[in-house]
Amino acid sequence: MPEQVSQVTVQPIQTVQPSIPQPPPINQASAENTSGQGKNAIIPEGIKGWSPSAFLWGFIWAISNRVWIGLLTLIPFVGIIMNIILGLKGREWAWQAKHWESIEQFNKVQRRWVFWGFLIIGIVIVLLIIMILFAVYKLKNPAVLLETG
Q1: pLDDT band for position 30 (cuts 50, 70, 90)
Q2: What region does 53 belong to: left with phi over 0, alpha with psi -120 to 50, or beta?
């Protein structure tokens, strides 16, 4: 009697692999907003460079941008050196320390700091010149000093 052989179809088992997001390659990371990610954050090209606002405003700029090392500007003699260091590294530190919407927004805020810094310095210089001219005038005209209302 012939034997009946049944054929069983074997289907390969499909394994489901969980989708694990892979970090972007390093060269693409600069396109992402890496602000506020700490000292290891990648600094985009639009951020690097001299920071006149950090140099001019020192500890006030540092507090606003959460760059706490900038408080060293309050220490006599160290402060002068720290202001220069803030000028050199301030933009990068501010990018790493605080979240910014974009490079454009970061640059806009930093430009405002520069504008107000130069404006205030200009006003102080004008006031100093007026005070010096007034003092020179008073010294050259002693009769004015003796006049009473």
Answers
A1: very low
A2: alpha
